[in-house]
Amino acid sequence: MSQARTFPRGGVRPPDRKSLSEDQPIRKACVPSFALLPMRQHAGEPARCLVSPGERVREGMLIGRAEGPGAANVHASVPGLIREVLEVVLPSGARTPAVRIELDGEFECTGRPQTARNWREFIRHELLERIEEKGVVGLGGGQPTAAKLRAAGRPQLLLVNGVESEPYLTADHRLLVEKAAEVLTGAQIVASLFELEPAQVLLCITEDRRQTLASAHGQAAALGFRVEPLAARYPQGEEQQLRLALAGGLDALVLNVGTLLAIYEAVVWGTPLIERVVTVSGSAVRRPSNLKARLGTRLRELVEDCGGLAGRPERIVVGGPLRGFAVADLEAPLTKEMAGVLLLGRGELRARGSGTAGEAACIGCGRCIEACPWGLRPLELYHWIREGEPRELRRLGLERCTECGCCAYVCPSRIPLVRWLAGGRWL
Amino acid sequence: MSYAGIILTWVFANNLVLNQLLGLCPFLGVSRSPAAALRFALASALLMPPFALAAWALERLVLVPLGVPFLQLLVLVLLLVLPLLVLRLRARRPAPAPGIGWYLPQALSSCAVLGVGLLATSAGYGAWSSLVAGAAAAGGYLLAVVVWSALRERLDRHGVPRPLRGLPIALVTAGLMAMAFLAFDELLFKNLLG
Amino acid sequence: MISAPHLHAGPTSRRMMLSVVVCLLPAGLWAVVRYGPPALYVLLASIAASLLTELAIAALAFRRFTLGDGSAALTGLLIGFTLPPAVPLYVPIAAAVFAIAVVKMTFGGLGRNWMNPALGGRVFVMFSWPVFFHASPAAGRADSLLRWIWNGTPGAIGDVSATLLVLGSVYLFVRRIIRWETPAAFIGSFSLAVWAFAGLPHGFFRGDLPLYLLTGGLLLGALYQATDPVTSPLTRVGRLVFGAGCGLLAFLVRRFGPYAEGVAPAVVFMNMLVPLINRLTRRAAC
Amino acid sequence: MLNLRDNPLLLYALGICPALAVSTRVDNALVMGLLVLVVLMGTTLVMAALEPVLPEALRLPLALVAAAGLVTAGDLFLRTYLPGLREGLGIYVQLVAVNCLLVGRTETGRRRLSEAAPEAFGQGAGFCLGLLLVALVREVLGAGTISLFPVGSFSGTLRIGGLAEQPVRILLLAPGAFLVLGYLAALYNRSRS
User: Fold this and answer.
1) Measured between beta carbons, which residues in chain C are less than 8 angstroms from residue A315?
2) In the prediction, which pLDDT does C118 show?
3) Is pLDDT at A321 greater than 60 in this prediction?
4) Model ipTM over 0.90
5) Which residue of A63, A392, B186, D20 is surrounded by the most CB atoms within 10 Å?
6) What is the pTM (predicted TM-score) of this model?
7) pLDDT over 90 for what percent of chain C?
8) A409 within domain boundaries
9) What pLDDT is attached to residue C137?
10) Residue C121 in domain
11) C7 vs A167: CB contact, 8 Å cut-off?
């Protein structure tokens, strides 16, 4: 097997702490009594709400039409009565209209025999149409998949991104263990969209998980796909870092494992994106597990599904520990781009015995420069932002920052560099 | 003193800015952009060696034989002023882009250039020594300006407490720079060169 | 608003400062044992003066309490280490006040100064009261290597035991609190210069290396003072150049200057060049 | 009229080239400050007198030559009456001729005599005051003495007990000049805002 490949510079090696939920098979979460579906579960503008309070909706029915760039359709994840349309604040801080559906009536999609369609019959246009209509978005970054595929031009490589380099998160890992066939079929669908040879499709997994993913590995080889082991470094799982590690100049399309599964279900079974696998983990939850839950389920219900809290969590994080958002309560609903719900205990905010402390002055140690995968100088950017000098920020290349968090992760003065650098864009 | 001794002394021990405290106005010109400050320093530096040689020539060949050493200042200032006069009279249209040429008149009037001439003559250097001393002084001046422009970028970036911004922090930084130069005095170079 | 990332690695800057202080304590204790109470008074005076000065300025000028970051205590300790034990108490106090007030707080406090405060204070007193810092004739040949290692020469307090200083620094290297590039280049270039030029009047390549290495505050300067992250370059190449410069200048001042110790002026001079080094090594990766 | 508000020395560091170096003794500073004041006033008078006949291009060159003449005169005066002190000032006396304050004034200062003279006096006096302040701080801390002019029985220098034996000698060197002026300028900024 070829030596593990990786991106050229920077990056950090956080403790992966995936052992908490790595071996837990994907479990179906119980259906919520109330589903709160935000109109904005993607990168772009909120979708236009098509329903009003009092209407009845069927499971999988379209309740929000995508409008404008970066928007995607939103479907009802449970059948029932629209109780109200209200404004909610998402964990990311964005305000968006949302629909509250009270569970009522029988399920039409789940538990009923579905007719599988042979995806090879569809022509390219129909495939894209079907993906877009079913509201499929990238489960990593929330970008509408149909738009991404249309804008991909003529890629020479398709990278199946199973790296998942953020600690705690094991959803993609479990998908590769249990649903490798469906994921790889999704990859075949996308490969057919761009007439790619099987050899041009790469399954990207980290080197240390090659044994546990032996079955997926075998199935990929059977289909003629290549398997590329990558170093377990953060942010290897990000699109650009994968291209830097593997593409070597070729034009590569990167798709997350969860997204490919959604594509498969949308194209073959016609089911809209109303469910996703989410990792509920951390020392403050009694039984960390990977739940296949309905979108709109409250985080509180997800945690109760995992045996409830085991002591007061120090911090609740939605998404990964390095890029996720801290939330004050568990009222937020599950949305398309949430990969994890982490209830972190006292000791978990530190990696390997480093102290937690308030923000101190920058001592110019240069660790953030070594950690930055883009070769930027976070401390110089930080100082110029504090002094308010946009001209210097352009000269130093602030626009190349992808807010991966490596600089803030290694900063001994615990300066929230990501917040400062993100703020710097508005100068 | 050997030429090497002169060079080391005039670049480090008697650094024009940080030891003799000459040419401070342009050096501390905090309002200037770094590029303008560097060009101005280069203009001054280019003038120093010829001016030092001219000062020596005037002293040895004109003033002393004529027995009017006290006219040295007037003659040197006239020497400074002539090119200034020519430039000003000939400059019909407004000054071109601020290249080195544009800075020449202002450089002429800075006490760094006149200072070098006076220092060279008062130190009793010969013709070649004056030229070398002028060049070394120019080198020391440029060294100080280049190091100072990098330091100032760091000060601007880090943000200095409110009342110290601008001139005060420039002076304090120059003070600490001068302190760093203190250890490299003439005694050290005399021992070094044996 | 608590922002990502929610996970951090490596020691905090406060813990780093305190670790350096702890690593210096053995050498400090041994110096007090070796030189008796005068050394203790000097150390206490410089630490107390540093803490009080920072407390006063932080409270009056910045309305903040900044003693928690441990940098004032470290500066006080380092100042004490560079001074001879029998020096009158106004010297450590003046050095500490200058170091904290002028070199550090004037520029805005921890992280904003461009010169190492302890060495700035040391150079300040060195040129204000040179009589205490002239090379004493007693610093003759190093007769037995063992004696140097354990009880040092009548130089500065910090020179008392090279072994304790080096042992202390091992922990700091392992925890990556200090980087190897600067000390390696510093000691390397210094030893090279000593070996080649130290015996100059009698001829090349006859330098007395052990004497120069174990006295004159070299180890203290190279391991604990030149490695101050605030005032050393950001990139590896920069730190190597910085260390080499420190080594050469330290040798120059030590061998040809009238002073017993050349490390402080050398490192202070190189601190002045650090922003220039950072600008020239902008391309370098780390 | 006589505005001491914006002190040229402390605010824009104008004209500190010759002054800072000699501000190690109070008497030096006094003499240098007065010399600059005299030269400034003299040059202003000359320039104002020749104002109507003077083409624009000749203003700066003529101002410099006039200043050089005045400085040479002042130099001869000092050599005869205060030879010891003059020796201490070294080449910095001649440098007053190209003093940045002077150059700055001829480029930007007001032209008519009624306005130029008071402005020149104001700036000269401000400069002199600033210089005296710097010299006082440097000499007291740096040498532990205050040296003035010997008058009758008064020997000319006041010794300050404690400091005189072990003064902070670095303040007499170049770093001291920068640091003292720097902190005075900071205090000045603070008092103005």
Assistant:
1) 2, 6
2) 96
3) yes
4) no
5) D20
6) 0.89
7) 53
8) yes
9) 53
10) yes
11) yes
- Token digits of residue C227: 């490695």
Q: Is residue C3 part of a domain?
A: no
Six-digit token pair at A29?
């979460």
**Residue of chain B nearest A390, judged by CA positions:** B157
A93/A100 Cα distance (integer angstroms): 19
Q: Which two tokens stand for residue A97?
A: 């209209």
Give mean pLDDT, residues C200-226.
80
Give the C-alpha separation, C214 to C254, whole Å. Answer: 13
Are A249 and A131 contained in the same domain?
A: yes
Q: Which CATH number covers residue C28?
A: 1.10.3430
Q: How many domains does chain C have?
A: 1
Which of A269, A286, A318 terminates a domain? The answer is A269
A253 and A384 together in one domain: no
- Bond into A235 cis (ω within 30): yes
Residue A261 domain-assigned (yes or no): yes
Domain count within chain A: 2
Record: contact B147-C114, CB cut-off 8 A: no
The partner residue sitting opposite D168, judged by closest CB among C88, C102, C128, is: C128
B21 touches chain D (CB under 8 A): yes
Residue C159 scores a pLDDT above 80: no
d(CA C79, CA C124): 11
Residues of C in contact with B147 (CB under 8 A): 272-273, 275-276
D76: Cα within 13 Å, side-chain hemisphere:
11
A42 located within any domain: no
Smallest CA–CA separation between C13 and chain A, in Å? Answer: 5
Residue D160 in any domain: the answer is yes
Give domain status of residue D68, yes or no.
yes
3-class SS of residue A309 = strand
* Alpha-carbon distance C75 to nearest alpha carbon in chain B (angstroms): 17
Q: Looking at the domain assignment, is residue D1 inside a domain?
A: no
Taking only residues 138 to 177 of chain D, the set having a beta carbon closer than 8 angstroms to any beta carbon of chain C reads 166-171, 173, 175
Q: Determine the number of helices (DSSP H) and then strands (DSSP E) in chain A.
A: 13, 17
Cross-chain Cβ contact C130/D173 below 8 Å: no
Kindly state whether residue D69 falls inside one of the protein's structural domains: yes
B156 shares contact with chain A (CB less than 8 Å): yes
Asked if residue A397 belongs to a domain, the reply is: yes
Token pair 């040419």 is found at: B23
Domain limit, last residue, from A232, A251, A269? A269
Angle between helices C13-35 and C71-82 (to 10 degrees): 30
Q: What pLDDT, in 10s, does the model give residues A198-255?
A: 999 999 998 888 888 888 889 999 999 998 889 889 999 888 888 888 877 788 999 9
pLDDT, one tens digit per residue, over B107-137 is: 666 778 888 888 888 888 888 989 999 999 9
Distance from CA of B146 to the nearest CA of C (A): 8
pLDDT-based confidence at residue D3 (cuts at 50, 70, 90): very low
CA dist B45 and B141 (Å) reads: 7
Please indicate, yes or no, whether residues A139 and A258 belong to a single structural domain of this protein.
yes
Q: What's the domain range around C201? A: 13-280
| Burial tier of A391 (Cβ tally within 10 Å: 0-12, 13-18, 19+) | exposed
Where in the sequence is the domain holding A373, given as residue range(s)? 367-424
pLDDT averaged over every residue in chain A:
88
pLDDT > 70 fraction of chain A, expressed in percent and rounded:
97
At residue A128, does pLDDT exceed 60? yes
- A256 with A126, same domain: the answer is yes
DSSP A8: S
Contact assignment for A410 to C9 by CB distance below 8 Å? yes
Residue range D109-121, pLDDT digits in tens:
667 777 788 888 8
Convert the pLDDT of each residue in D31-77 to its tens digit: 998 998 898 888 888 888 887 787 777 777 888 888 889 999 999 99
Q: Which of residues 370-389 of A touch B (CB under 8 A)?
A: 380, 383-384, 386-387, 389
Strand A315-318, strand A340-344: pairing: antiparallel
The per-residue pLDDT for C155 is: 72
Residues of chain B contacting C108 with CB distance shorter than 8 Å? 158-161
Asked if residue A260 and residue A128 are part of one domain, the reply reads yes
Q: Give residue C151's pLDDT.
A: 53
Q: Where are the beta strands (DSSP E) in B100-178?
A: none
Domain that holds residue D103: 8-192
